[in-house]
Design goal:
Strand content: 15-25%
Bound molecules: guanosine-5'-diphosphate
Shape: flat
Helix content: 40-55%
Order of helices and strands: EEHEEEEHEHHHHHEHEEHEHEHEHHHHH
Number of helices: 16
Number of strands: 13
């Protein structure tokens, strides 16, 4: 058995090509950046760039990490005045010779410079190709490359912290550590296989089981962290549900502090679901206002109602709004029971009594004494909205990102971790049941392969294609 990491990564694209793409957002802007990477980057730039001062000299003779002012010309026609950055491989993001042209952000100029690069020997980069080259050239492992995409997509401080952490390699280190423990373990089993006829035992079985058990525990913790990592990245969905006219849209507006949802006195105006994102202390929440739960004959509203249940099952938290003027304690109790039986177990339902501005709070608390932990608010007057916000925040406090060592944010990683755990469970059972070493060795090898897939120590074309095709062009 080959115990050393197996590097099988082969690119389907041609890595000898020099690639070019717009690195900035496209459209009109003050500045745009066009990035070239590959063996011919300097040659391509040489043909179109003319320094403002001094004689034209080979770009390859420029010092690395220097900036040059000059112009881009098509034959003798001036296209733009630009800044040219020169980064020599391997000291660049991709590990290859890289040129970045900072030009004016006119769509015409951007397009023209791209065309000139293409005409002079570069080809348009495929999605994620710069980052993929960085990975293939050993500048980063696969989890770090994936974190680049997450970092670019991050729009809240929580999502940003997670991406940064992963980009700096903390998660990879943890996976590599587990993998090394398995490699050590497997080498002992291998040794026993080599001396099979002599019936020797190099590895204490009890000790081996303990190692596997510890690794399984770490994996379980990582798998569990995914739920949290995922919601931080995508935002925590919070469904706002309740009967028509309970005040759901008004509450959404109060939480958002603006008037985006439609509020109306006619029952059932919130026809479809309205989704709004809001970042509270670095954690992104996605508030989803739904149509009422009441049965209705209105066709459009029916869709809305069924959407309510769909959304509820995706959401870890439901704010169930009830109108304290028109709902008795018994009614509410029955509605909450019905709701509980319709949603996934474990979903947190928070009963929120609305319109307390219209009644005495003492009477309200009496009326709903049989309900567990309700919150009473006035959505219209914004009374106790802070209390509700704080409750939501306490469910997903930002502190967890710091406290928890590693947080898994990718479904791909979770999948590989679950497969690893399955293999290791078989190893564990095999050790208990005195299974022969060759079976144990095979399961160990599979477990190591799955872990290797996370960091990219083991990768296939399909896997890379799948990951990098989700990036956009220029990344
Ligand atoms: P939805 O159907 O659940 O989305 O309910 P809306 O937000 O459209 O509100 C229904 C009605 O209740 C509107 O007339 C609101 O002005 C009113 N309403 C909402 N919140 C409050 C509140 O806190 N106090 C009072 N008195 N009325 C409210």
């Amino acid at each position: 058995m080959n115990l050393s990491p197996i590097f099988t990564a082969v690119r389907t694209f041609n890595n000898d090509d020099t690639i070019v793409a717009l690195a900035t957002g496209g459209g009109i802007a003050a500045i745009a950046v066009i990035r070239l990477s590959g063996k011919e980057s300097f040659t391509v730039a040489q043909k179109i760039f003319f320094p403002a001062k001094g004689k034209k000299k080979p770009i390859a003779d420029y010092k690395t990490h220097t900036l040059h002012f000059g112009s881009i010309k098509e034959n003798d026609r001036l296209i733009d005045e630009v800044l040219l950055s020169v980064m020599k491989g391997p000291h660049s993001f991709t590990g290859e010779d890289t040129i970045e042209i900072s030009c004016h952000g006119s769509t015409y100029v951007q397009q023209k410079i791209l065309e000139l690069c293409l005409a002079n020997g570069a080809r348009l980069a495929d999605p994620g190709e710069f980052t993929m080259r960085a990975f293939l050239n050993g500048k980063m492992d696969l989890t770090q490359a994936e974190a680049v995409a997450d970092l670019i997509a991050s729009d809240s401080s929580g999502a940003h912290s997670l991406a940064m952490k992963q980009m700096r390699g903390g998660f990879s280190e943890e996976i590599k550590k587990l993998r090394n423990e398995l490699i050590h373990f497997a080498s002992l089993i291998e040794l026993e296989l080599d001396f099979a006829e002599e019936d020797v035992e190099f590895a204490n079985r009890g000790h081996l089981r303990e190692t596997i058990d510890n690794i399984l525990r770490v994996i379980e913790k990582l798998v569990r962290s995914f739920e949290f990592g995922n919601v931080i990245r995508k935002g925590i969905p919070v469904v706002i549900a309740g009967r028509p006219n309970a005040g759901k849209s008004t509450l959404l507006n109060a939480l958002l502090n603006e008037n985006r949802a439609i509020v109306s006195e006619t029952e059932g105006t919130t026809r479809d679901t309205i989704e709004e994102e809001i970042t509270l202390e670095g954690v992104k929440f996605r508030f989803i206002d739904t149509a009422g739960l009441r049965e209705t004959h209105d066709a459009i509203e029916k869709i809305g109602v069924s959407k309510t249940f769909e959304k509820m099952n995706e959401s870890p938290v439901i704010l169930y709004i009830f109108d304290v003027i028109g709902t008795t304690g018994n009614q509410l109790y029955a509605e909450l029971e019905k709701l509980k039986s319709n949603v996934t177990p474990g979903v947190r339902i928070i009963p929120v009594g609305n319109k307390i501005d219209a009644v005495s709070i003492y009477n309200v608390e009496q009326a709903y004494s049989m309900i567990k932990n309700p919150i009473f608010i006035s959505a219209r007057d914004k009374t106790n909205i802070d209390q509700l916000r704080n409750l939501l925040l306490s469910l997903y406090s930002h502190g967890k990102i710091e406290a928890n060592n590693s947080i898994v944010t990718s479904a791909r990683h979770v999948d590989a971790l679950k497969h690893t755990a399955e293999c290791l469970q078989r190893v564990y059972n095999g050790l208990l049941g005195n299974l022969t070493n060759d079976f144990i060795a095979a399961d160990l090898r599979h477990a190591m392969n799955y872990l290797g897939e996370i960091t990219g120590e083991i990768s296939t074309d399909d896997l890379l294609e799948n990951i990098f095709s989700k990036f956009c062009i220029g990344k």
